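Late entry, evening session. Most of the bench is empty. Finally got around to the prediction I had been postponing all week. Sequence below, unchanged from the version circulated by S.P.
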Amino acid sequence: EGGPGALEAFDARDAAPEDVAAELMALTFGESTRYLMADGVEAWKAGDLDPLEGALKASPPDTVLVLIARGKPPQRLSKAVEKAGGEVRSYDAPKPWEMPKWVVERAREEGLTLDSGAAKALVAAVGSRQQRLAREVERLALLAHPRQSLTAEQVERLAGEGDTRRTYDLADAVVAGDVAGSLAVTEELMEAGERPGRLVFGVVRRLREVHRAAALLDAGVSEKQLGSTLRMPPWQLKRTVGKARKADTEALERAICLFADLEVELRGGADLDEDTAFTKTLVAAAG
């Protein structure tokens, strides 16, 4: 009892504010300090915070509650914490334009030398999320061994290979109208650290590739000519042609429009949270 082992953790995507509030106010017979943590509270809606606001004001003095927001938390929650005598702290990640420099430094810690061009190539390949970049740097260091440096060209070839193929799997499941398969691949990618905003770009790009291939095949372009036109690696071309021959072009166009609308919605501040909005669009596009 007590100490770090007594931490009670909640995932805010599954636990509502009222659940945390109930646990915060629960009676215990222990004499040591209680530690509670809720991660992902940016997912909470302002209208659901009433129970937690009351619990914060009346929480026992020997109870510590840590609320973690990966992004901007609800303003009402921040104010409630401050009114209850708590602290609101912000730990800002490097800005997107600062990430190549951060990548160079992180690679050095892993014993890998990346120049500015290689670092920029990595950011371009996998995005600017710090956690994702850290994971890719670790993977590149392992792939490079026993070499201690990689060029920009080598980084472009190696970075995000596995995730790129899984994004293709996701888009191809949409093309095939496989809702269950689409959701399964999405869950796998999310668990690997992907976010809907980044997946949208990859899925739309893939849908457009298949749509273009289908249009060219319908126009009488041969598979050999298709390869030089689309400029894809052989494995990708073979897969694209196979999907394009079976694709419903009208369904493809509809799916592309749905994801394009989602991209605009996410940039402008969606009514639904990012995960829910993506899932809803995915089901509509594949259905």
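Two things to note before I forget:
The two ends are 51 Å apart (CA to CA).
The first strand starts at residue 7 and ends at 11.
Will write this up properly tomorrow.
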